[in-house]
Amino acid sequence: MALTPERVTKRNVTSCKFPIESNEYTFRDAIIYALGIGFSTKDECGLRYLYENSKDFQVFPLFGIMVAGPSVINLLALPGLKIKQERVLHLEQYFEQHRPLPPQAKVSNQVEVVDVLDRKTGSQYIFR
Q1: Does the keyword section mention Iron-sulfur (predicted)?
Q2: Which of 7, 65, 93, 116 is most buried, judging by how many CB atoms fall within 10 Å of its CB?
Q3: CA 25 to CA 67: how far, in whole Å?
Q4: Which residues of the chain are under the pLDDT cut of 50?
């Protein structure tokens, strides 16, 4: 549903159905992420995240947030909201992982706006 500025209401935004986004990653993506957050082969536990042939290789748990990133960015482009990305402030995030991420996978996710709060200088969107 395309929203025009006069149709942007809390009810309309929270009832929007966003498309399911598909993405895939490999162990290479997970290794680059681990390097980016500071793991090193000099660290005692670094090889577990940096060397795919390590007997205990695993994907760093917070990498799952990166995989969902495109869906969150697409939320900012919701027609009618006129969200200026330079004015967006990321307040907090909650992440729950039920099992370890595999070294490579195809994933699908869908963003859902669950609430819109009125603030003095704008709006706060809560989504999952």
Answers
A1: no
A2: 116
A3: 8
A4: none
